[in-house]
Please model this.
Amino acid sequence: MRITLTLLIFASFLLPGGCAPVMEDATKSPKRVEVTIAERRQFESFESLIPIPPDSALTLYSRLSPEEFHKQYRPLVDFVTSLVDSFNRTVDSRYTIDTVFINHAVADFAEAGQTGRTLYISSSYFFLFNDTRILRSVLTHEFGHIRYRMLDSASAGHIDALWERLRETALFYLFRDGEYSGNARFGGHPEDSAAELFASAYNLVRNRPEELRARFRYADSDHLPLLMQIFNLASR
Model:
């Protein structure tokens, strides 16, 4: 789906017909990346969860202008927009994503999310991992949020009740996306809300179903029916 956008602070480029437009934050020059103490500390908090040292990640931010990023990672950008188009066909037209925004801000390292019909994804996912599997996981999680918003009230209420029960049993760790994503271990926070639990389960059911089921075996057998209820709801 192609739309017309007028956003003065963005440099944009449109992909071939049928693909979601991609927009990139071009507000930071590659020669003038400024990093605050708080941002530096933020990177340090990820040190054990990312495949390169924080200083190396900051160096990549300083070297990769949006233009250079696009040249180097065009195949991955094409993969992302193609996957978004594919996922759009699985959801109600009211919820489709029509713009992918690649965020080059250091402050938004490792962030992904949605506002309206725009999906935001940090450029760090591309240059840290350079891996379609990681990007598929991130995008599937985001579309899991869309599927959660599409649930009828009864199903949403059921998920809310399951989230409360999962909190009581301390089993949220089974649904943290990052536990299944190799070196992208910071992914997923199902303990935050029922919506996050559903989005993570939706991702894992579609991309790592056998591994998810295998991990269920290590939970108390009394909790298996609870876990399978979440699995089955996310499978729909």
Observations:
- Confidence is low (pLDDT under 50) at residues 1-18, 26-32.
